[in-house]
Every structure is written in C-alpha cells, then in structure tokens.
Amino acid sequence: MITLQQMGLNSRLEARSLVDLIVERLEASIISGEIAPGTKLSEVALAQSLGVSRGPLREAIRRLEGRKLLQRTPNIGVRVAEFTEDDLSDILVVREALEGMACRQACLKMTDAEVKTLRQLLRSHGLQSGVKKGTGYYQEGKDFDFHFLIIKGSRNERLIQMLCGDLYDLLRVYRYKSSTLGGRAKAAYMEHEKIVEAIEARDPDAAEASMREHLRNARSYLEALSR
What we know:
Layout: H1 18-31, E1 40-41, H2 43-50, H3 54-66, E2 70-73, E3 77-80, H4 85-109, H5 112-126, H6 129-133, H7 146-153, H8 157-163, H9 168-179, H10 184-200, H11 204-226
Antiparallel strand pairs: 1-3, 2-3
C-alpha cells in the first residue's frame, strides 16, 4: 500500500485547497508510475500521513474514480486502475485510427494562433530534464498535453468525446510508461516535432501519417514492456 508520506508529502496541506492538492498529487504519482497500476490504496494511511480527516480524502478519491484512474471494488477497497494486456492492445489500435483522423482534421481546422500555441507547448516539453536525459516524457493533462491540443483542434466533437473521455487519464499512465524505456522519450519528442511540422505546413496526409507512426511506435514500446 502507498501513502502520500511515501510520495514526499509530509507537510500539512492548507484547507483552502486540500481536496484539489490531494487530487493533483495522487494524479501525478499515478501518471508517472510512482504508484503502479493495480496498487491498493489505504484511506487510513493516506489520511494519517496528511494529517487530515478522511472526508476530503474520500472526495479526492471519488474525483479520481470519476476520471477512471481509481477503481473501487466492494469488500476489497480502492486500487489504481489498470488495463489487461489484451484490452490495452485493442484500445491502442483504435486510438491510432481515431487520433490519426483527429490530427488530419486539426491540420485543416486549427487556427494559426493554435498552431503557434502547439509549437510553444512542444518547446516547453523539450526543456524537461526527462526528455533531455531520455528517462521519460511527462505531460500534464488537458491544455498542457500535446495530444489533447491536437484532438481539441480537430473541432470534431465525436472524436473529442471518444479520445478525451473516460479512458483519457488512464491512457496517460501507459503513455508515460512507454516513454521511460531506453531512447523512447527523445524519439517521442522528435516524432512530436514531425507532427507539428506537418500541421504547420498544412499537409493533412503527412499529419495523419506522422501521428499514426508515432502511436504505432508507442504501442510497440508498451508491448515490449509486457513481454
């Protein structure tokens, strides 16, 4: 069982943002793999390590359950959500097709200002020590996520719902996990560069092809992890 104290959160959190901070810290630790998929959490230990009542902790856990990062099983407790190998493989194949199409649409529909924002976001990712050292490529959620900006830029609500819905956060866990394998972080960053270049050139064929290639490579690394 993992406690927030084990994650280096020994100080008491301020009441004004207690639930938000618990959610933020737990999310970051789950996405980064510090708390591995399938890990069982202890509400008692978490509450004690923070010096808070179980009320706000339970609210934070409920939020993460709603985002599918945590799963509650009757008579067992709360665990970090995880995919089976077959589920993950099937989802990633579908994701390649859908996100490739989203990238094509984004190439055609994103404004110049949005493309500039995407380029700036990628530059900020390139400054991460993990990317520079090749140890991992961590992206925060939503507007700080390279993939999310492209999907949103597609202007296709169906695609946005399918790609940024219930499985969005849990897929981020596996995306980060694949980036920690040797050489993958830098390769993923360069693949992102190729995608942005295609979008900047307003070349939808190249944009879709580059995104699909990027996602195939990520899937290959994840499959290597499971062997």
